[in-house]
Amino acid sequence: MDQWISMLSEFGFPVVVTLYLLHRIESKLDSLNQSILNLPNHLKS
């Protein structure tokens, strides 16, 4: 049990920070993807 607690305290913070950053960047990636998909339409006009 003590081993699990030490692993959680050692790796818990980096996991939480990683998940937070992935959540924040997700909307930016969606916006970038949409812009790339709309690029051919903008180049035609």
TrEMBL record:
It comes from the Bacteria. It holds the Pfam family YvrJ. This is YvrJ family protein. It comes from Pseudalkalibacillus berkeleyi.
